[in-house]
Amino acid sequence: MNKFELISFSNADELAQAVAGQWLDEIEAANRAGKNHCVALSGGRITQKFFAATVEQAGARRTSFERVHFFWADERCVPPDDPESNFKLASELLFAPLKIPAGQIHRIRGEAISEIALENAQQELGQYASKKDNQPIIDLIFLGMGEDGHIASLFQNALSESSKSAKCKDAFVFVGNSPKPPPRRISLTFNAIAMAAKVWVLVSGSGKETALIESLAGQRPLGRVIQLRPKTKIFSDRQGVQ
Hints:
The chain is an alpha/beta fold. The protein has helices at 12-33, 45-61, 86-98, 114-128, 160-164, 190-195, 209-216, 220-228; strands at residues 4-8, 37-41, 68-72, 74-76, 130-132, 135-137, 140-144, 172-175, 185-188, 198-203, 232-236. Strands 1-11-10-7-2-3 form a six-stranded parallel sheet. The chain has a three-stranded antiparallel sheet with strand order 4-9-8. The chain has a two-stranded antiparallel ribbon with strand order 5-6. Helix 2 (45-61) runs parallel beside helix 3 (86-98) and helix 7 packs parallel to helix 8. The longest helix has 22 residues, at 12-33. The protein is globular, with a radius of gyration of 17 Å. It starts with a strand and ends in a 6-residue tail after the last strand. The relative contact order is 0.18.
């Protein structure tokens, strides 16, 4: 059985519109079932288009976000108003337009001491997510993919933190040596990503074709995610990748 589903689009705008619509389907299904929807967001250029498409479609569909709890796939160790902050991006382009209450937003406190930030992130996820074998299960994780095939803040050539996270039972790990600045980050572990109910990867932008092809063959950090999970959905605007 194929462990991934690759959905291709002609451009980033089409990709963002399609993913936004499918996410709203997930939220509305959770609303009908009376369940919380715990989602982990990522940063990246495609995320800006994705957030804008979500806001537009949610308004037209009148989708309620009252059961959605927002977490992060990774965060840079910077203050929440720093341009590098993934929280800042979501706050300005998603939360503010949708008027999401603060109690549903569970940001990683990147400005705090890493041990404290990790503990807080673990506790908040555990409070709202369902569990299996005492491990929190995120309903949907959004991931981007870098030109090197990294996902969240799990890099191919990072040192011990990234490799340890493949077996780590914690949901989050501190990465102190990211090869891409800023070097200090907090990321979901491979284990947490593997255990999520659904993982959707948004692959957009030039220079990513080789990394995507190799990832689909089981290489690079994204390839590890694909191998660890029963199924991963990949949305791509990279032409010629099958």
